[in-house]
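Q: What residues go here?
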């Protein structure tokens, strides 16, 4: 489980690239959502959460905040989020995986349905199909689910059995509109920036 503020200078990035919206899948206890809202850069945020125990806490945590939450599987609710989302540059934080495993002691392999267990490919497919993402930034957490690298938190020993094998689908879905960058901090991140941003601009905000 990564932290959205770790791979980049997030406030600098949001202001530099005029990010106005934020979409998060797998809100969990709301730490990333709260961090982004507290930056003061975002006009509107949206979050998707599957676990009802967590979902029911958001009304108290995010009182009077510009955020709307959707309950259910991220790949089933993403189209509903996109219908609400305006055309302004948006930061997507895709962090939905292994329902229940981070917070309530369920095993990482307890979900047998591959799309429900690892929804990132389907999330990207829905986003790229239903939205002009040419001005959006997409962060994807837990890269070690997909590949072995020299991650700060080490490789994941169960990747080949309940994880995945590579992320070619990312290039297939958004490679024409985005530059894909690996970041090996924590459990690994994929950072996708619109191709119109120069290498120098991207380097300037990556930690």
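A:
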């Amino acid at each position: 489980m990564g932290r959205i503020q770790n791979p980049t200078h997030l406030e600098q990035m949001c202001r530099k690239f005029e990010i106005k919206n934020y979409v998060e899948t797998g809100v969990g206890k709301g730490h990333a959502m709260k961090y982004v809202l507290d930056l003061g850069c975002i006009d509107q945020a949206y979050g998707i959460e599957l676990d009802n125990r967590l979902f029911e806490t958001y009304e108290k945590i995010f009182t009077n905040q510009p955020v709307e939450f959707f309950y259910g599987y991220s790949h089933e609710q993403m189209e509903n989020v996109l219908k609400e989302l305006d055309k302004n540059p948006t930061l997507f934080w895709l962090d939905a995986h292994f329902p229940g495993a981070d917070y309530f002691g369920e095993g990482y392999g307890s979900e047998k349905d591959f799309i429900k267990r690892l929804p990132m490919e389907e999330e990207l497919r829905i986003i790229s199909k239903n939205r002009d993402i040419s001005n959006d930034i997409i962060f994807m957490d837990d890269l070690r689910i997909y590949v072995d690298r020299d991650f700060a938190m080490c490789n994941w020993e169960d990747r080949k059995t309940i994880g995945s094998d590579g992320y070619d689908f990312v290039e297939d879905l958004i490679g024409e509109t985005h530059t894909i960058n690996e970041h090996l901090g924590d459990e690994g991140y994929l950072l996708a920036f619109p191709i119109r941003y120069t290498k120098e601009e991207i380097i300037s905000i990556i930690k």
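A: Context that may help when evaluating the design: The longest strand covers residues 44-49. Residues 74-84 form the longest helix (11 residues).
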